[in-house]
């Protein structure tokens, strides 16, 4: 469970960076400063999104 929390925090930080770069100050930066964090966040969230579509297997109690 700990690694999942770390991944969630990292993806949240990437999201904050992406939001900061899309503001007025971020529009003067090169394109790659936005594309690289966005691509990293997309790559990190893809397995989660696919898992939600397929459904998680039931847990054994």
Give a short summary of the structure.
Keywords: Membrane, Transmembrane, Transmembrane helix. The protein is an all-alpha fold.
Question: Would you write up a description of this structure?
Answer:
With 61 residues, the protein is mainly alpha-helical. It is built from two helices and no strands. The protein has helices spanning 2-21, 32-54. 0% of the residues are buried.
Helix/strand layout:
Blueprint (H helix, E strand, L loop, with lengths): L1 H20 L10 H23 L7
Keywords: Membrane, Transmembrane, Transmembrane helix
| Fraction of helical residues | over 70%
Q: How big is the Rg?
A: 15 Å
Please tally the β strands and state the result.
Answer: 0
What is the count of helical runs? 2
Quick one: overall form? elongated
- The CA-CA distance between the termini, in Å, is 17 Å
Q: Report the order of strands and helices.
A: HH
- Class computed from helices, strands and strand pairing: mainly alpha
What percentage of amino acids are in beta strands?
A: under 5%
The description of the largest β-sheet is: none
Q: What do the pLDDT scores average to?
A: 75
| Uncertain parts | none
Transmembrane segments: 6-24, 31-56
Keywords: Membrane, Transmembrane, Transmembrane helix
């Amino acid at each position: 469970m700990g690694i999942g929390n770390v991944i969630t925090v990292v993806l949240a930080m990437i999201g904050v960076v992406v939001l900061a770069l899309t503001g007025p100050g971020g529009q003067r930066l090169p394109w790659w400063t936005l594309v690289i964090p966005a691509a990293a966040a997309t790559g990190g969230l893809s397995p989660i999104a696919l898992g939600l579509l397929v459904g998680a297997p039931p847990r054994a109690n």
